[in-house]
Every structure is written in C-alpha cells, then in structure tokens.
Amino acid sequence: MKNLCTIELLTPKRNETFKSVREEEVATMIHSIWKQSEQGARCVDLTKFLFSLTLNIVSRMSAGRTFSDHEFRGGRKFKEIMGEVMALADAFVIADFIPLLKYIDLQGLCRQMKSLHQIYDEFAEKVIDEHINRRSQKAEEERGVKDLVNIMLNMSEAGSHSAEIKVTRLNIKAMILDMLIGGVESSSTTVEWAMRELLRNPCAMATTQQEIESVVGLDRNCLLKESDIKNYEYLRCVVKETFRLHPPGPLLVPHQSTQGCNVGGYHIPTRTRIFVNIWAMGRDESIWDDPYHFKPEIFIGKNIDFRGQHYELLPFGTGRRGCPGIPMGLSVTELTLAQLIHCFHWTVEGEVNMDEMYGLTVPGKFPIFSRPSWRLASKFPG
C-alpha cells in the first residue's frame, strides 16, 4: 500500500489534478465565513470550519463526493467516529507490555475496535459499490473520473492481467481509511495552530497580509489560486514555523530495530521500538535560537526544507518511511491559510488560548473563536 500511494495515488502530478477541488472547497468555506460575518455574527468557530473543509477535500479526492454526517449508521457524526479511531490508535494498551493479557481484553479496546470496524466497513463498502454501479452504467465515461477509488478500481481491473499490480477491495477500503485518518485532522490542526500563532503575533499577521497584498492587491475580482502561493515567501515561512512548534504529530510513526546497533553512544538492542520526538526537536535550544517564540523570519534566506532532507525539521519524517501525503497536505495548508489571512481581518477577545490536547495529533484543547472582518475592496468575488 505504501508503494501504491507513493508511485500512483499521492504523487505531485496526481496532486495537481485535484487543485480545482481544493480551490472550490476553500472558496466555499470563505464564502460561508463571509456570509456569517455579513449577517452580524460576532465570532466564528474556526476549528469547526477547518475540520469540515479538510474532510470535504479529502472525501472528494478519495470518493468524488463529500461525506455527510449521515454516512454512518446510528446517525453518528464523522468527527465523533474519527475521534474514537484516533483515541484507539494512541491508547495505552496494557497487553503490549504483559502479552498474556491480550486474550482477556481487560480494557475493552478489542470490543471497541470491532464495533468501529463494522461501522467503517459498512460505510466503505457503500462507497465502493456506488463507484462500481456508476461504472457499470456509464462504462468508459465513468472510468475517466479520477478520484482515488476510481483509480484503484481501474488498477484492480488491470491487475487481473498483470502480476505487478494486484489491488483488492480490502486495499481500497484501507486507502479510504488512511486518507481520512492521515489527511483530515492533521491539515486542519496545522492551519488552526498557524492562525492561533498569527492572532497572538499581530506583527507576523500584518507582514503576511502585506506580502499577499503587494502581489495581488485588495481589488482582485477573484480569490487566490494555488498558483499564487509560490510568490509568498513569508507565508511559507509561517507554515514552516508552525510545523516547527506544532508538528502534525508530536512523535513520528515508531520504528523497530531489526538488529542491535550503536547510535550516539547508546546500544540499541534488536527489536527495540524507537520513537522520534519531533515536538521536542522543534524546541531544542541547541538547534534553534529562542525556540519557544513564533518567529517565521528565521527561515528567510535559509534553505531549510521539511521533506526529510534537514533533520532539524522533520514534521513528515524522512526516507522510505516518510509521509507520502506531503504534496496534498502542504497544498491544503498553504492555500487555506493564505485565503483566511488575505480575505479577513481577524480579532479575538482576550488572549489566544494555546493549551494543547494529547493525542496522535496535538490539537488545541479548546476551539478557536475569532471575529472576521472582510478586507477586500469588493464583496465576495465570484
């Protein structure tokens, strides 16, 4: 599955084909925020808006349509299901340390996982069946629709004639789940932390707005495009600084040594589970000057990238085990942040709450409520 994602599904070229999806969904979110502000809303729940945005983008990329809160039986909402999945993924499992207890399910985790699996499996089966039915009705026309489920169904059909590619129904369901878990909360949380930092650092907010304004102005009769992002160096520095202080996951996916070795004067025995704490690396005073303060300018003029080549900044890991979804996640993060900053002035009452909540990702403990004020010269552009 990792090779399939890297070679076929999440390549930069494939990511480019979904550019219109991202631009449409971000524009829809901006319009919803603008509409609320025009109707006199004092504050908007940015956390809720950002989660809905990334869910819509990921669902359209994966299945060609947005997922509603009525997809799961029992009327359970997407955010609720996702929260339970993430909680199970980072739960402390006693049986990991006392193997004999795995037959008892002392904590009830296996029972909970089986229940969630059944709920998710019904949902994924429905999504796949929808695609198969449309393909049978529209034949070649439907095969041209390039959401990821359709792409994998094409590969599944081709796999019957090829020994190299064998994509099963189980692979497709796993891909949908991986996209939802890896793509929704991580992207929305990153944009949310960037907004929190900019709200409590008004000079950085003003600098970012001025940079965008100097390129496109305030009277442009359309919203920003992804193609504009390459012109905004300071905005990209804001994203890097957010990754440094608030990486999508505080710990990289754990690795296990296949044989004993020595690293930095320490002996690592065979089959040792190893965690890389990138949250701590971003606050290491031996690497960064004044590491606890948000200073995007530290990246200006420096060739520090976060794709795994510079070990002081590894939000997505590195090497073969690095995150294959970097192009998608970065595109969503940069475009969303640029639109929010360019289209609105943002104000909060009192101090911005920066408390964190423990998990596989580290979201803010409380939602972020902020008051938007339209910046552009004209009303919402068409």
TrEMBL record:
Q: What metabolic or biological pathway is this protein involved in?
A: Alkaloid biosynthesis; taxol biosynthesis
Which GO terms are recorded in the biological process aspect for this UniProt protein? paclitaxel biosynthetic process
Kindly report the protein's main subcellular placement as a broad class.
membrane
GO CC annotation: membrane
Binding of heme occurs at C323
Would the keyword Iron be found if you checked this record's keyword annotation? Answer: yes
Q: Give compartment(s).
A: Membrane
An MF annotation (GO) of this entry: monooxygenase activity
Q: Name one Pfam family in it.
A: p450
Record-stated family: Belongs to the cytochrome P450 family.
Q: Could you identify this protein by its name? A: Cytochrome P450
Give the species this sequence originates from: Taxus chinensis (Chinese yew)
